[in-house]
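It is worth pausing here to work through a concrete case rather than discussing structure prediction in the abstract. The textbook approach is simple: state the sequence, then state the predicted structure, then interpret. We follow exactly that order.
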Amino acid sequence: QVHLLESGGGLVQAGGSLRLSCAASGRTASNYHMAWFRQAPGKEREFVAAISWGGGITYYADSVKGRLTISRDNAKDTLYLQMNSLKPEDTAVYHCARMGAGEKWSGRGDKRSYDTWGQGTQVTVSS
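Step two, the predicted structure:
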């Protein structure tokens, strides 16, 4: 069983930057597609970005394109999210997730495609 642990969240002013990390432990996550989702208070969990198992293909929600960058280091079994030009509407708890073994890349934006989730890290952007 794999466990995912996020870190790097915090409080930042609008226009600032943060880098989130998601470390996998237990069984490896390096052979699986991975993603970041976020959930703001009172809202549904929404897709942010996904990356293929080898790191060569990425996909972003329109709301974060050009500002957030997903990457991974399979040697370290770690997923990253570089967040630049942050806006107050980016405030949320950010969760990393591992796609289920039988799922396909076409389901990358659907939270039902993911079977393992981290506890999340809070990102707060002040105006």
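Step three, interpretation. The chain has a mean pLDDT of 95. The chain is about 0% helix and 50% strand.
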